[in-house]
Amino acid sequence: MHEAGSETSSGSTGQQQERAEGILGYKPEVRDIAKAKDEVNSISSRVLDWMKVRGSVTEPSAAAHKCEAVDPDFTKYYVVNHPWSVYDLKKGSFDEAMDNLRKTLPEKGWKITKDGPMRTKDADPEIVAVQPDSHHTLTVQWLKPARPGRKELISVDVDSRCFRAPEGVDPYSG
User: Fold this and answer.
1) Which residues of 82-111 are buried (b: 16+ CB within 10 A; e: fewer)?
2) Which regions are flagged for Low complexity bias (predicted)?
3) Strands 77-91, 111-117: parallel, antiparallel or unpaired by DSSP?
4) pLDDT per residue as tens digits for the range 38-69
5) Which of 55, 93, 113, 116 is the most buried if burial means most Cβ atoms within 10 Å?
6) For residue 4, what is the DSSP state?
């Protein structure tokens, strides 16, 4: 008899995969963590190019995080997330950046699922899109300086779907 979540046999691994597939509605692909991070970083670079603005960009790179729905202990399943922003524009405007994304995302195969105000007090503009082939999601928010001390910026969040780390790889160390 095995403890819940035990990986001592291929049967329990198969059960965990079936459970994950049932919860997520798809079978999580086995993907090398570095490759998944590179893919998300590449998407982020393209999104910045599509905005056609130049300014300061936050530095952090994509990172693996727990796939909360199926692996809250972060032992086998993971998502890749890359939050970043562009601010202090030296070329272009924030309005242009959003308009460029509205035009370019569909041309590049992305489906815009939301284009309107955020559900916040400031109701800043937000674009949410999904890439139907890879299932990456993109959330772009134009945060206007409505309050003193707040810089105007465009916040971008690129996310992957859940993946399964290769056997023997701890996603936390990836």
Assistant:
1) bebbbeebeeeebeebbebbeebbeeeebe
2) 1-17
3) unpaired
4) 999 999 999 999 999 999 999 889 999 999 98
5) 55
6) T
- Amino acid (one-letter) located at 83: P
Closest CA relative to residue 39, chosen from 20, 61, 18, 13: 61
Partners of 14 in the β-ladder: none
Angle at 137 between CA 161 and CA 48, to 5 degrees: 130
Could you read off the pLDDT of 146-169 as tens digits, one per residue? 777 778 999 999 999 999 999 888
pTM of the model: 0.86
- Determine the topology of domain 29-166 in CATH: TBP-like (3.30.2030)
